[in-house]
Amino acid sequence: xxxxxxxxxxxxxxxxxxxxxxxxxxxxxxxxxxxxxxxxxxxxxxxxxxxxxxxxxxxxxxxxxxxxxxxxxxxxxxxxxxxxxxxxxxxxxxxxxxxxxxxxxxxxxxxxxxxxxxxxxxxxxxxxxxxxxxxxxxxxxxxxxxxxxxxxxxxxxxxxxxxxxxxxxxxxxxxxxxxxxxxxxxxxxxxxxxxxxxxxxxxxxxxxxxx
Length: 211
Known about the structure:
By secondary structure, this protein is mainly β. The protein has one helix at about 65-70, and strands at about 1-5, 10-15, 20-25, 30-35, 45, 55-60, 70-75, 85-90, 100-110, 130-135, 140-145, 160-165, 195.
């Protein structure tokens, strides 16, 4: 469903209803972390699930991976009975065949729980889910779908239908990330300060211009 590459050809990839894996330069595939009860993975999280357009979506490699071994994923979750999408961080072991230390970074990204009359309007629709680190500023960018909630994209008070921009290298207050001061709503008392871009429907692919 998504891929992230290292310079040596190592490829991390997610499969929406299966989980996170890594393909080594030799061609060997190590299954790292599964969705729900998916078999064959080194570990799994029972709260992760897939439905419709939702599941384990984006994957990103920390810019300082050589030092911290961090991998990030975006996945749908029913942890504590709440249907949401989460950005999570894992630590990869030295032999690259297992992850540990799951840390939930963002835990309140919207999920569509019920079917509606929209085209392709089942549960999990317009789920967003791509994550990337910018080569320019090192921040993590996260796309979120509007979940077929009409007011969400244009309203900065909703987290859906957006691109979020967060600094995961630091923790601020009770959060596992900080909000860059250059975000457009960083100093707002009403808007979500994580919002970088708004007015989007279901952003699930994007790239950075490296020029």
